[in-house]
Amino acid sequence: MSLSRYDGRLVIVASRHDKAAAITRPMAKLLGVRLWSPPDLDTDQFGTFSGDVARPGTPVEMLHAKIALCRSVLPNPIMVASEGSYAQHPLFRCVALAHEWMIWDDAANGFQLIEHKAAITPHYYAAMLENVAELELLLQRCGWPKLAVTVHPADLNLPSYKGLQTGADIQAAIETLQAAGAKKIQIATDMRANLHPYRQRTIRHLAAKLARRVRTACPQCHQFGFGQRHTESGLECADCRTPSNQLKAICRRCEFCDYRKYTWRAAGQADPFYCPYCNP
Ligand SMILES: [Zn+2]
Ligand SMILES: [Zn+2]
Q1: What are 41-76's pLDDT values in tens digits?
Q2: 187-222 as b/e, with b when 16 or more CB fall inside 10 Å?
């Protein structure tokens, strides 16, 4: 029996930083596809982590833009693209909120699916270098030397230094920017997937999630892409039976026919404390 309707097909990964390597294992295992990334696709025009190119739209718009760019140079019908966004936690600066999106685009069948993964990660850090004595501490928080860093002039229109792995390279980058007149220099973890094994792992998990949905058909309407996670609130109040804000169930949902397959349901009823009628 074949793995999926995509068994043996070629999938182009619309990425520059060798994401194909990160997602080959789950995609091949779950769908039987082969993956390939064009070596010189300029996806940096859609924003870079180092901040020297701002992202010109929402992450989902960027997914579509990367697919469109790739499709303009290659005729392959099936493509995958991904997009990540990392921001420091507003309260706990040593952890970051990570969001990753991935799209499956099968133009021949008009089949498009986007999957998303959010996580809290200690593997992203960015800060301004206020004085040289702090450099060692900032680098440590960035995950260096295990992870590479970027050095970015925040107040000048100069290019960033990326993928810095040795102390000498970091020092040289800072000195060059200072010599050019930069007063504000930002040091950050280099989040490009090829240099960041933790991010690669997140992307791999997301790819597995996406691949499972790609091959799963809805039990009711038989459309592919079944499995979007969905939460339902509205657990009934124990006193008056009004639907409360409390979580009632978690299910997988079909976006075509709204069929729901429940994976968890709350037992019992909601505390009247959460009831909009009993405790408005
Ligand atoms: Zn359905
Ligand atoms: Zn009530």
Answers
A1: 877 777 776 666 777 788 899 999 999 999 998 989
A2: bbbbbbbbbbebbbebbbebbbbbbebbbbebeeee
Task: Looking at the CA of 258, name the nearest ligand.
Answer: 1
Q: What is the pLDDT of residues 241-256, one digit of tens each?
A: 999 989 999 999 998 9
Ligand at minimal distance from the CA of 244 is: 2
CATH class of 10-122+198-213: alpha beta
Q: How far is the CA of 253 from the centre of ligand 2 (A)?
A: 28
What would the two tokens of residue 98 be? 């990570």
Calculate how far, in angstroms, residue 249's C-alpha sits from the geometric centre of ligand 1.
19
Q: In this structure, which ligand is nearest to the CA of 237?
A: 2
Which residues are within 5 Å of ligand 1 (an ion), measured at CB? 218, 220-221, 254, 256-257, 259
Going from the Cα of 272 to the center of ligand 2, the distance in angstroms, rounded, reads 5
The whole model's pTM is what?
0.86
Q: Which two tokens stand for residue 279?
A: 């405790």
Phi, psi of 194 (to 5 degrees): -65, -20
Retrieve residue 161's tokens.
């230094």
